[in-house]
Amino acid sequence: MASVPERIQFTLSRLDVRRADRVLEVGCGTGVLADLIANGAPEGRYVGIDRSATAVSATRRRLATLASEVEAEVIQSSLADLEPAQTGEFSKAVAVNVNLFWTRSATAELDILRRSLATDGFLLLVYQAAGAPERLLDPLVANLDGAGYEHDEEFVDGETTRLLAVECRPAALPGRKVTTT
Asked: For residue 62, what are the CA distances in angstroms to 76, 131, 162, 168, 178?
């Protein structure tokens, strides 16, 4: 995995993708993580969203070469405009270096993720910040607390940078289905 950025390798290891996982990636960028997720969940589903048409196009091109039969979809959309097909549609959601969760109130977006995740699902937020990612923690935690998420934070010193990983689980909602993977 030498050509895969350290933050992506770290995220993939923390995400622990299983064969039948249904994963939502917020801010799919050029599709490096999308490719790895889709290959790790050949019986699952991958949905990537990004506001950038360029990023969506790059991710679609990358996923077009998949050898697996994973169901993959890439949508040009902001998270605030995403309409999940069903409540509890995803077993996991992930965002790498997506600033909206710490730069402003993300109540609407966190609510969409809450509805999108299965009862036992989780959201993984990973940040690789120039300098100290500690500066992101207070506003990030305030947003997660305000939206009713339980969370665990961990700082990890990588080979070349310091990473922040936040695993988030929304409070239980009635009618959310439980996934089995």
From this structure: 15, 31, 28, 28, 31
List, in order, residues 6 or more apart from 73 with CB less than 8 Å away. Answer: 45, 46, 47, 48
Look up the CATH number of domain 6-27+75-170: 3.40.50.150
Return d(Cα 113, Cα 123) in angstroms, integer. 8
Helix residue ranges, H only, the chain: 6-15, 32-40, 53-63, 100-103, 107-116, 134-146
From first to last of its 181 residues, what are the pLDDT tens digits of the chain? 448 898 999 999 999 999 999 999 999 999 999 999 998 998 999 999 999 999 999 999 999 887 667 789 999 999 999 887 678 889 999 999 999 999 998 999 999 999 999 989 999 999 987 666 788 899 999 999 999 999 999 888 877 788 889 999 987 544 434 333 3
